[in-house]
Amino acid sequence: MLYDVTLPVSSTLARWPGDPPVAVDWLGDDIRVSRWTLGSHAGTHVDAPTHFSAGDATVDTLDPAMLVGPCRVLDLPDVPRITAAVLAGQPWQGMERLLFRTRNAQGWVEDPTVFDPEFVGLSRDAAALLLAGGVRLLGTDGLSVEPFGGDGAVHRLLLGAGVILLEGLALAAVPPGDYTLLCAPLKLAGADGAPARVFLQTI
Amino acid sequence: MLYDVTLPVSSTLARWPGDPPVAVDWLGDDIRVSRWTLGSHAGTHVDAPTHFSAGDATVDTLDPAMLVGPCRVLDLPDVPRITAAVLAGQPWQGMERLLFRTRNAQGWVEDPTVFDPEFVGLSRDAAALLLAGGVRLLGTDGLSVEPFGGDGAVHRLLLGAGVILLEGLALAAVPPGDYTLLCAPLKLAGADGAPARVFLQTI
To answer: What is the pLDDT of residues A185-201, one digit of tens each?
Structure first.
């Protein structure tokens, strides 16, 4: 079975403050075509290392073998932040790909048009712990892995080590557990990130 | 092993005559963000049924279970058109998902910026044969399954029957044979089609 864990892209979808809005022009008549304008970090998307460090890897060069493979979805419905202390009670060890389902998941169900600055993100100590533990792809259901108002330290730590970040997942319908991740960012040449279609396949 | 069979999206990528060009604005400085404008049929992309028939299924509603699964890549390097007669000599029967590798594949390698109106497409009799044989997803390495200057009959036949069309594949490096298709169109709400990231996984 496949879960589609992608937010639908539309002009009303919540976006990061300051990010370009999604716009669509409906063209054609007998034959329908449309023109979409969207930011590289719109909706469900991947951050590439160059997002925070010029000259680092761009999204089109990420290794497909890391985008597709075994992953674990961890359920953290009650925490305001994912810290090292929170992770201490979770079975995350040994996984290269980890996705966090938090209270953000329900927010997307209730109103996908609203950006909530109180969304759940990771603390730097959690990021450092996961990095040291061998995580290579990290996904969350907030529009950023890093809490709003952060100084970028979480991004710099993870992206600087080549960890692929997957943000804006729609996880409300997904039971925690192990899956095969199919993470497919658009192949935008030279880009800092890209909107993605993401599926979770039951094992 | 995974093959990435996606054309890189850039402002120089060849496009269908009349389709919106790809444009990119590089924003940000310390933190890189970009804004992309692109047509729903840019580069490697999926056609949804509503592309040729208002009210039919949109790309965001296509069944993920059809986008992911067993497929066969057939090699037709020498034909100017894929006709029913051509298919008679090919082992396509029994597959729900079929991808055609033609001389178009080499064209993308030689110069991805040029739209070649002589690209290889399907004749209507081939489309009818495949449809009757149970094909539900059809992929080609041209920007359209239908030859340039066609009247839309191939599209109408296939899309009208709910067949998913996958166009603009980059197949030059892929040996013919059987794979697991991972076809991931962007989840563009209400759209006639969407740029896609597509992988082929060896079995």
So the answer is: 999 999 999 999 999 99
- Rounded to two decimals, the ipTM of the complex is 0.97
Per residue in B173-203, pLDDT (tens digit) is: 999 999 999 999 999 999 999 999 999 999 9
Kindly list the residues from chain B whose CB atom is less than 8 angstroms away from the CB atom of residue A9.
186-189
Q: Is B155 a catalytic residue?
A: no
Q: How far is B38 from chain A (nearest CA, A)?
A: 5
Chain B, residues 7-46, CB within 8 A of chain A, namely: 7-10, 19-20, 24, 27-28, 30-41, 43-44
The answer to whether A39 contacts B37, with C-beta atoms less than 8 Å apart, is no
> Which of the listed CATH numbers 3.50.30.50, 3.40.630.30, 1.20.120.10, 3.40.640.10 matches domain A2-6+40-202?
3.50.30.50
HEC sequence for chain A = CEEECCCCECCCCCCCCCCCCCEEEEECCCCCEEEEEEECCCCCEEECHHHCCCCCCCHHHCCHHHHEEEEEEEEECCCCEECHHHHCCCCCCCCCEEEEEECHHHHHHHCCCCCCCCCCEECHHHHHHHHHCCCCEEEECCCCCCCCCCCCHHHHHHHHCCCEEEECCCCCCCCCEEEEEEEEECCECCCCEEEEEEEEEEC
